[in-house]
Inverse folding.
């Protein structure tokens, strides 16, 4: 029984990271209808920036905030420079763009900070949380930060004008332009927010998986699985999907014989395919109906 | 009266296909004008060209400012509200949020709140449904919402693309009565594109008839209504 509780709680903790990645993916998917394959690399690069700032002696939370701001700016710049010119290009052009971005960011990170693994600090410590052996303070911190982030996003989208404008631009761009919304900038804003959210995921998972240029590969696949499971059109679904994938991954690794740590990733891929076959809109997504 | 909107030699294209062939017309400030024409004559294209939603050449001036080269959202910000064909409702959002979106470019938040109340006075049915998802409204209610959303901009000029489309005759009368009221009381210049020529001519004071991308007739709405050709082609008697 303790093993089960332990695995579920650990699953929720890593699920929080998947939820952040899924949120970032959904944010860009809502804005431009494409999956950003480079989302993980962007998060990894952000984490390196945070690490570099701390190497220079910046305290953790200041580095954290600075990284959020720099990632946001970086996301906006990537959209303006690379994806705005591609706005009306076919899907394969986008895919090529994402892969190029992936390769470039990965190589630049490797070139700048080399490929050896680095320790990344946690501000929460790694002692048992509230004296319980089930979960560590860092894991509790991951869950807490994700929940705070969710709450902030909810308030942003429900109760601010910019949030309302972003939702309008994502659902009906033409109508949004007709009420005077600059939809192009809303897309850039979406990229900025996605980059910032991704950087949170990167900084939270780095103490667990260690910092190196390929650290987000697996995490992004779980994030995709979470986004697909929750429904690519639903930020709320993405978060629920994140937690579910985290729990599922851990339980499968523990209880299904032969899965272990090695076969966890294929399980995420199997989950993506199963959802796409059985319920393509995910748990909370809405069906996209096109009139022909 | 001064011409508020001036259109000269307007040509519009969908890919290789030319839809407007040198359209010329003007709108007087405070007028309620209708643009009549058969399917495919270029009515919708004309409205879309004004808001730069279709590739076009020629000159369009609004209150002396040329509109060419401006993006759709910048044209809207000049005070031109456009109720598109199909209404453009944000169906997944509430009625309240749709109205908020109509005023999203405005900074005077207090006035926006009172304008929303004003819209609910114009369209009481919307007040009953103000927290409901707009997609659950009936066609007529959605059209009311589309007009209300456009008015939230406090526009100087409102363009309406077939507001009567798909609505029951009684609802259309109601809607047109409100449009007339808005035109008189709020001093909003209105251009209505319509296939329902009879109703549109009753409502409007000016009328233009468009055929294959050209204006073929223009004048006082009453005169147009009594014109024999128009009667035969558009009014059916």
């Amino acid at each position: 029984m303790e093993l089960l509780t332990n695995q579920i709680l650990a699953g929720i903790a890593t699920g929080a990271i998947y939820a952040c990645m899924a949120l970032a993916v959904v944010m860009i998917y809502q804005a431009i209808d494409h999956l950003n394959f480079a989302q993980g690399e962007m998060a990894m690069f952000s984490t390196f920036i945070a690490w570099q700032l701390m190497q220079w002696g910046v305290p953790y939370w200041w580095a954290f905030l600075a990284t959020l701001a720099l990632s946001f700016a970086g996301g906006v710049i990537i959209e303006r420079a690379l994806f705005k010119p591609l706005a009306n290009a076919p899907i394969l052009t986008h895919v090529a763009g994402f892969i190029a971005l992936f390769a470039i960011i990965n190589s630049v990170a490797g070139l700048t900070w080399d490929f050896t693994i680095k320790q990344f600090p946690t501000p929460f410590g790694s002692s048992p949380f509230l004296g319980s052996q089930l979960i560590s303070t860092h894991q509790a911190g991951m869950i807490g930060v994700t929940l705070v982030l969710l709450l902030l996003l909810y308030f942003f989208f429900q109760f601010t004008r910019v949030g309302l404008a972003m939702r309008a631009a994502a659902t009906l761009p033409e109508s949004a332009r007709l009420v005077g919304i600059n939809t192009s900038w809303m897309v850039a804003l979406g990229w900025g927010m996605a980059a910032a959210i991704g950087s949170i995921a990167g900084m939270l998972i780095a103490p667990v998986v260690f910092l190196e240029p390929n650290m987000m590969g697996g995490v992004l696949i779980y994030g995709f699985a979470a986004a697909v499971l929750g429904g690519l059109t639903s930020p709320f679904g993405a978060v629920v999907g994140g937690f579910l994938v985290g729990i599922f991954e851990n339980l499968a690794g523990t209880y299904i014989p032969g899965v272990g740590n090695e076969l966890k990733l294929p399980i995420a891929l199997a989950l993506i395919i199963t959802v796409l076959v059985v319920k393509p809109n995910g748990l909370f997504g809405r069906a996209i109906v096109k009139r022909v | 009266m001064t011409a508020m909107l001036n259109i000269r030699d307007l040509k519009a294209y969908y890919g290789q296909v030319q839809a407007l062939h040198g359209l010329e017309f003007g709108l007087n400030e405070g007028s309620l004008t209708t643009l009549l024409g058969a399917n495919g004559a270029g009515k919708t294209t004309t409205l879309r060209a004004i808001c730069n939603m279709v590739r076009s050449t020629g000159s369009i001036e609004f209150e002396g400012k040329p509109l060419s080269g401006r993006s759709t959202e910048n044209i809207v910000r000049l005070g031109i509200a456009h109720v598109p064909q199909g209404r453009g409702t944000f169906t997944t959002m509430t009625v309240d949020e749709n109205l908020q979106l109509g005023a999203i470019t405005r900074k005077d938040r207090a006035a926006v709140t009172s304008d929303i109340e004003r819209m609910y006075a114009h369209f009481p049915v919307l007040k009953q449904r103000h927290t409901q998802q707009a997609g659950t409204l009936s066609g007529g209610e959605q059209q009311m919402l589309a007009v209300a959303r456009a008015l939230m901009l406090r526009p100087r000029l409102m363009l309406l693309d077939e507001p009567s489309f798909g609505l029951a005759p009684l609802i259309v009368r109601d809607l047109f009565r409100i449009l007339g009221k808005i035109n008189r009381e709020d001093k909003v210049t209105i251009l209505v594109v319509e296939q329902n020529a009879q109703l549109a001519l009753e409502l409007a004071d000016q009328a233009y008839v468009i055929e294959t991308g050209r204006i073929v007739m223009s004048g006082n709405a009453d005169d147009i209504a009594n014109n024999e050709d128009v009667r035969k082609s558009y009014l059916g008697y």
